[in-house]
Design a protein that fits this description.
By secondary structure, the protein is mainly α. It is built from five helices and no strands. It is 75% helix and 0% strand. 0% of the residues are buried.
Length: 96
């Protein structure tokens, strides 16, 4: 399905009436002719760059799982370093 602006649609209807064919057939012929001349759909430079970057992209990570894993790791670090954290925080408050 192709969505056309009202102005373009009116032009296509008028041209189709002049040629004595259905507007859909006129659009189909025009698209076929355009694709045959161009050798197919063209890819923009931006799209080409995005595809190149996508080759090196990291795999998609489940965000919720990544957050859960980060929270677990942070909790484990807190547990592992609880003595040191207590020592540092108590040291800082004694001098005040």
């Amino acid at each position: 399905m192709i969505q056309l602006s009202p102005v373009l649609e009116e032009r296509i209807v008028r041209a189709a009436k002049q040629k004595g064919i259905e507007p859909e057939k006129l659009v189909e012929k025009a698209v076929d002719k355009l694709l045959a001349e161009d050798g197919g759909p063209q890819v923009s430079e931006a799209r080409r760059k995005l595809r190149e970057l996508a080759k090196y992209k990291k795999p998609v990570v489940d965000f919720d799982a990544a957050v859960h894993q980060a929270k677990r790791r942070a909790g484990q670090l807190l547990e592992d370093n609880a003595d040191w954290i207590e020592h540092v925080t108590s040291k800082g408050t004694k001098g005040r």
